[in-house]
Amino acid sequence: MSRSSFIFIVTAFLTLPLAEIHHPYFSVVEAVFCLALIASFGIAHGAIDNHLYGFKNLAGNLKFIGVYLLVGAGFGALWYFQASIAFTVFMIISAYHFGQSQLVEELKYDSWWNRGVYTLWGFWLLASFLHLNRLELFELSAQDFEVLPVFRWMLENSSVLFYTGSGSLFASLLYSRYKSLLTWQSLWIEFYQIAIILVVFYFSSSLWGFTLYFVILHSGRVLQQEYQYLLDRQKVSRLFDFVKLLSPFTLVSIFGLAFIVAGFAFFQINYSYSLLALVFISCLTVPHSWVMDRFYQERN
Questions:
Q1: What is the phi/psi pair of residue 23, to 5°?
Q2: Angle at CA of residue 118, ends 64 and 275, nearest 5°
Q3: pLDDT tens string 222-243
Q4: pTM of the model
Q5: Separation between Cα atoms, residue 90 and residue 98, nearest integer Å
Q6: Do 88 and 150 touch, CB atoms closer than 8 A?
Q7: Is there a contact between 200 and 212 (Cβ–Cβ < 8 Å)?
Q8: Angle, to 10 degrees, between the axis of helix 83-103 and the axis of helix 58-81?
Q9: Which of 194, 162, 190, 195 is nearest to 177 (CA)?
């Protein structure tokens, strides 16, 4: 079991009693705390994509950053013209990215079968989150349904998506064990983590449940992989060097998000802050997922 998995399980059990607190001030504190975690650890795990890609000179880094921003801006334009298509593409890419970071060190060999299992794992994760938080998400996202009718459809059909995703994921994991692509130990650990994720999504608020997964089990795992990669290649020698490497683009992204939120508020654009944050994160996720896919292929 990885360190991030252990921390996720311990934190999940320790924070379950917080689900019984229903005070408005607590909701505000929870929201601020979750946003701070996502803005720091969440954004940070994609803040060294240029180093993972392997550029060693200024010209290469500037070219990479330019392409990275262009892809993100292009996806932002897709949100403006076809929000439902952008949301659907983002869900597919996120599903693959979440599953890949979760299973890439567990599934042996790099194959198209593995890629399918990655996507199924991420699909199950997103379907579970929607299904177990559908009532809260309906209330929180009501004003966004006009912009994102596909999201409303997903919530209305979340039970079908959840049970279909669960059955497909379990069958694919068992088949992977049958083909010796997955060890028995990895299989049981994965089933245990799946159970813990379901417990967290069921008992926690939607914001805290997703933050717990995204910050610890996803971002924490990826940061650990990135740190080990840079250590092995002697690009960093200690944790402090790694933090220094992460800081510039993490801070730029945070200020960029704040600037966009201020701009939308000033021009009174009819997007909720939650949808605006989703758009911003998706514009970072699309190029980041491509870089991480290349990173994992090279590691394997």
A1: -105, 135
A2: 65
A3: 888 888 888 888 788 888 888 8
A4: 0.89
A5: 12
A6: yes
A7: yes
A8: 130
A9: 190
